[in-house]
Amino acid sequence: MEIRATTVLPAERREITLHTADGLELIGELALPPDGRAPVATLLTLHPLPTAEGMMDSHVLRKASFRLPALADVAVLRFNTRGTSSRHGTSQGEFGEGETEKHDVMAAIEFTEFEGLPAPWLVGWSFGTELALKWGCDPQIEGALLLSPPLHRADEADMLVWAESGKPVVALVPEHDDFLQPEEARKRFQPLTQAEIIGVDGAKHLWVGEPYVRRVLDEIVERVNPGAHPLPTEWDGPYEKDVQPLR
Asked: For 92, which DSSP code?
């Protein structure tokens, strides 16, 4: 069977609650490899802008949680930042313009440590890349994977923190992005000396279309579990079908 946009592969999924240092509860989900297999790496995902309908169920992050535990033995942690709603529910608090969300990022990192989740990588998309760059360079974190970084809130000082850490940072930049395209991204990311900028031909900011989703997930897995790369496009085992309309 071909893996399609609505395919949900097996995983051990459970709802979680993150507790922030400023007293909020954030709703989320942890998806682990099925059949008791231990994950080899962990994706800590940070969603797009909540004031523009970004949430933990935004399609690329949702599909990562649907596929990567089974295909690549990767754990996927998703959560709604403060004040954000999705079909999983609404997190407490209100949108903080990327500043008070510092507490949200730290709560997620602390959760991975408490749960003993291995090799956590940040995966930020759009607004989520700003949170990763501003607040995510933590000793627990292996590196950052940035999807459609707009570089609206993150600045040179944030990049210098990552540069000094030496941690890998990979930015996937769509050819037709509305905010930052590959050529300009290479200039803007120069302070982050180890950043790898990958221009993706034909793609747009929202990564709509199964070929672009597969490209994103392949690039992620190549970094966090190279032995599972490239990802298969066929699946012979049990699966479910997601009923929510997808991009």
From this structure: S
Q: What is the pTM of this model?
A: 0.97
- Per-residue model confidence (pLDDT) at position 247: 46
- Using CA atoms, how far apart are residues 124 and 114, in angstroms rounded to an integer? 21
Point out the residues of the chain with pLDDT beneath 50: 246-247
Q: What is residue 2's DSSP assignment? A: B
Our CA angle for 77, 78, 79, nearest 5°, is 130
What one-character-per-residue DSSP string does 113-136 give?
HHHT-SSEEEEEETHHHHHHHHH-
d(CA 204, CA 16): 32
Alpha-helix residue ranges (DSSP H) falling in the chain: 59-72, 101-115, 127-135, 156-165, 182-188, 210-224
Q: How far apart are CA 75 and CA 12, in angstroms?
A: 9
Cα dist. 239→30, 139, 162 in Å? 18, 36, 39
CA-to-CA separations, 22 to 10, 15, 91, 92, 102, in angstroms, rounded: 35, 21, 13, 11, 10
CA distance 207 to 200: 10
Using an 8 Å Cβ cutoff, are 146 and 207 in contact? no
Q: In angstroms, what is the C-alpha Rg of the chain?
A: 17
CB 87 within 8 A of CB 78: no
Q: The tokens 């050529």 sit on which residue?
A: 183
At residue 180, the pLDDT reads: 98
Give pLDDT, residue 246: 44
Give the per-residue pLDDT at 227.
98
